[in-house]
Amino acid sequence: MAIDSRRIESIVAEVLERLGTETPPGRGAGTAPLGVHADLDQAVAAARSAFAAYDQTPLATRQAIIASIRETLAAQYRTLAELAVEETGLGRVEDKILKNQLVTERTPGTEDLEPIAWTGDHGFTLAERAPYGPIAVITPVTNPSETIINNAISMIAGGNTVVLCPHPNARKISNLTVDLMNRAARRAGAPQPLVHSIDQPTIDVAKALLHYKGIRLNVVTGGPGVVKEALAAGKKAITAGPGNPPSVVDETADLEKAGRDLVMGASLDNNIICTDEKEIIAVALIVDRLKEALAKGGAVVLPPHHTDALRRLVLEKENGPRKHAVINRKFVGKNADVILKEAGIPCDPSKRLAVCEVDQDHPFLWTEMMMPVLPLTKVRNVDEGIDLALEVEHGFRHTASMHSRNIEKLSKMARLCDCSIFVKNGPNAAGLGWGGEGPTSFTIASPSGEGMTTARSFTRFRRCTLVDAFRIV
Ligand code: NAD
Predict the structure, then answer these.
(1) Given CB 3.0 to 4.6 Å as the disulfide criterion, which of 28, 91, 173, 459 pairs with 84?
(2) Separation CA 172–CA 21 (nearest Å)
(3) If you measure from the C-alpha of residue 302 to the centroid of ligand 1, how many angstroms do you get, rounded to a whole number?
(4) Closest ligand 1 atom, residue 143 Cα
(5) 120, 72 in Cβ contact below 8 A?
(6) Is the pTM for the entire model greater than 0.90?
(7) What does the longest C-alpha to C-alpha distance in the chain come to?
(8) How confident is the model over 66-89, as pLDDT tens digits?
(9) pLDDT digits (tens, 9 = 90+) for 37-66
(10) CA geometry: angle at 362 spanning 356 and 366, to 5°?
């Protein structure tokens, strides 16, 4: 879909107008986005001033702010989803609605900040989670509003404020999200806007933010470049980097269910979510039956000559067998039928996913393609499958999954893959709390080790000891 700036501007204006009644005097007719600044120095200064005021705010106000943010965003899922698709050209509106709902409802608030108490002969010690202050945040184009909602709720719950540099190609959707959250927070008693962003984000601004003097914590979500830059800044960094999640299917799996789960998981938002299944590794004995189940689940399973045509279309440069290829970004996050049609392959628009059977050296297996084109390769047995899965995951330790009824092999792969998320017998989305238990996160910090980040990830432990007193027994 072509980017239509006028349409984006009109959606933004419409949403702001609806909410504009609480705009403070001097801010125009409600259309000046709240917390969006012309330059980085202004954004950091505002986040610092907001932190000084927010730090004096009672916990009950923090909780009311988060409740108000959830309520405000709940009324805007469709607007956020449509605007993101329109501005970035990535993904599917109906899936983005669910993603926005997931982060709004399932990102934990202050309840995540459990204190710890120790008592004994020498009295009482209490450890509590304290904020860092303003946190520097960089967000991706693939989940623009979702990452901001998820990060900001968690960081605000932890008592912090936020300075954000969003992806330049998601500037408008990101800054609309910032505006909506700040307005909601103000309605619930926030002394100042808590999330501060840049009107014209660029990679240079992102770099300057990561190196900004006096900001103690960097939190980045994106590919290898931003992770490297955050680590080079010489301060604490929570880094959520790339993945290439393999899914192993063995001969004991419920194949009908595996087929359904794989189509649902791998096609979510056209495969741009970092946790989406990026390749299937199946035991040879069941490959044909699995392909039937995938087709029944809504995928189109391509013959070899179509796979070759697709390879020529979506890869810009190959780097040899078992190597990450360079993808043609034009096809990232597009619908399966759109990609296939461009390769000259007719496809019903109702099909959400194209599955290609490939050999083990094929670049589709080794490349994070972020499009609804899922390679499937066969192995002689499940142990060979687990070994190959570890290799194609490239040691990111991000996400992996397995469909099997063999407890021993499920445990073996769970342990060996050493990932932040491992899903057994479900779509990978279940590991995000989407049809699975537990809280959600859209910043899965594998390189720095926090895994699914929540409020507690953005806090420092502080401890206070009262000597020889305060026991009640
Ligand atoms: P990207 O790396 O191109 O951009 C991410 C952000 O980093 C953007 O805001 C961009 O402006 C900034 N950036 C990029 N290079 C930078 C540099 N050298 N210095 C400073 N800032 C820089 O990624 P993307 O296309 O927006 O998102 C997709 C990638 O992010 C995929 O690799 C995906 O796996 C990963 N991702 C990971 C997670 C996770 O939780 N681990 C979540 C979402 C996306």
Answers:
(1) 173
(2) 21
(3) 31
(4) 43
(5) no
(6) yes
(7) 79
(8) 999 999 999 999 999 999 999 999
(9) 999 999 999 999 999 999 999 999 999 999
(10) 100
